[in-house]
């Protein structure tokens, strides 16, 4: 501590947290004021304390009337702000999986009395406090794209979340119907169209506007400097909903973000307070049997129709009539020419004979 010197003031440190000052020794005149200021060095604060509390008592050897004693005590409290440098990282397992009718059901998880095939997915997020102070508390928000389209069914079902060593807990909106099989009255033409267009890549990202996302909110308790807390999320993805989509690759971008307690401020050194995890659902690309049947049937029908159309068109243009007439005429011409040939030959023979005679 430092002390601003003023006449008639002397201080001594009685204990580490007890400073005693005598003012106006040997006496204070009536109606006089003394200004006292103390400077504390805060560089040694551990970051354990939420507020700094100073209790000041003024006492005198002289008797003082009880009714005027209330202003002899002063309580000064200073809320402390913790400087921290937090970072979040995460991993997802698996990073890709295959779905589709040709994938065996044993690759997926079935829940009791539900007909859906679920793909299990695990997320692990880690929040690290790189100091310099203790982080009194934080909130981690995890956002998962939950729908293929704005009005579709929710795809994810969270089984469990766990914060390491019980140092926090998570809340989320439960999915009341984890196994929704879309019962759209989809025509066979739509299915065939979907089969042929299953080529694109679709990205589902909560940072894009208009996305319906599932938010898991975890509140974490205090973290000392250099301490890490991990959050595990176990969940299931309803693959029946994926099957109805026409994309062959669906990319899910999940985002995690740390929010600090009011009592802490971030001193940024470039460590990220956001993270994104990506996993991909790959369609097996094998058409369903009846789709193949329908494709063949429709191709046949279209072929026959085209043939008939062409035939009618040609007939209308008089192609066949002209053709027959040409054939008939050609036949006639041929006969005619044969006859004339005969005649030529005959006349030649007769000419020859005439010559011989001559
Ligand atoms: C700071 O916290 C410690 C332990 O919680 C406590 O013993 C100490 O009195 C506190 N100091 C201040 C200045 O509040
Ligand atoms: C997910 O975590 C659970 C529990 O830790 C484990 O049993 C399971 O095998 C994990 N699944 C995947 C796909 O990593
Ligand atoms: C977990 O939640 C319960 C009830 O909401 C709460 O009392 C408890 O303090 C929380 N635990 C932590 C470590 O945040």
From TrEMBL:
Residue ranges, compositional bias (Polar residues): 345-358
GO biological process, alphabetically ordered: cell adhesion mediated by integrin; cell-cell adhesion; cell-matrix adhesion; integrin-mediated signaling pathway
Pfam families per UniProt: Integrin_A_Ig_2, Integrin_A_Ig_3
Stretches that traverse the bilayer: 291-315
Any single GO CC term annotated in Swiss-Prot or TrEMBL for this entry: integrin complex
Localization of this protein: Membrane
Domain of life: Eukaryota
Ranges of residues in domain Integrin alpha second immunoglobulin-like: 6-79
KW Plastid (keyword) present: no
Topology within the bilayer: Single-pass type I membrane protein
Protein's UniProt keywords contain Glycoprotein: yes
Domain (Integrin alpha third immunoglobulin-like): residue spans on this chain: 88-259
Principal cellular location given in the protein's record: membrane
Keywords: Glycoprotein, Integrin, Membrane, Transmembrane, Transmembrane helix
Region span, Disordered: 336-358
Entry GO MF terms: integrin binding
UniProt protein name: Integrin alpha-9-like
Species for this entry: Carassius auratus (Goldfish)
UniProt lineage: Eukaryota, Metazoa, Chordata, Craniata, Vertebrata
């Amino acid at each position: 501590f430092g002390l601003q010197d003023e006449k008639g003031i002397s201080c001594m440190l009685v204990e580490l947290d007890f400073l005693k000052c005598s003012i106006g020794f040997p006496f204070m005149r009536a109606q006089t004021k003394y200004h006292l200021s103390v400077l504390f060095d805060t560089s040694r604060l551990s970051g354990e304390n939420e507020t700094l509390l100073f209790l000041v008592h003024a006492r005198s050897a002289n008797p003082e009337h009880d009714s005027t004693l209330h202003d002899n005590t002063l309580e000064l409290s200073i809320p402390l702000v913790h400087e921290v440098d937090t970072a979040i990282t995460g991993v997802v397992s698996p990073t890709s999986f295959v779905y589709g009718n040709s994938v065996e059901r044993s690759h997926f998880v079935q829940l009791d009395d539900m007909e859906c095939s679920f793909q299990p997915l695990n997320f692990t997020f880690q929040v690290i406090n790189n100091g310099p102070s203790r982080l009194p508390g934080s909130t981690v928000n995890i956002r998962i794209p939950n729908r293929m389209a704005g009005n579709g069914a929710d795809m994810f079902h969270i089984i469990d979340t766990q914060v390491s060593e019980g140092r926090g807990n998570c809340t989320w909106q439960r999915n009341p119907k984890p196994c929704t099989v879309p019962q759209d009255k989809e025509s066979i033409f739509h299915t065939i169209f979907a089969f042929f267009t299953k080529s694109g890549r679709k990205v589902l990202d909560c940072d894009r506007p208009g996305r319906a996302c599932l938010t898991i909110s975890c509140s974490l308790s205090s973290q000392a400097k250099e301490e890490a807390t991990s959050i595990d999320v176990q969940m299931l993805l309803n693959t029946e909903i994926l099957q109805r989509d026409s994309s062959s690759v669906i990319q899910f971008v999940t985002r995690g973000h740390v929010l600090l307690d009011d009592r802490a401020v971030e001193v940024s050194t470039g460590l990220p307070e956001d993270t994104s995890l990506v996993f991909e659902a790959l369609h097996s690309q094998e058409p369903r049997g009846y789709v193949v049947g329908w494709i063949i049937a429709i191709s046949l029908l279209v072929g026959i129709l085209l043939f008939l159309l062409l035939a009618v068109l040609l007939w209308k243009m008089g192609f066949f009539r002209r053709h027959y007439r040409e054939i008939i005429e050609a036949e006639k011409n041929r006969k005619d020419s044969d006859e004339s040939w005969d005649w030529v030959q005959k006349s030649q023979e007769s000419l020859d004979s005439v010559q011989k005679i001559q």
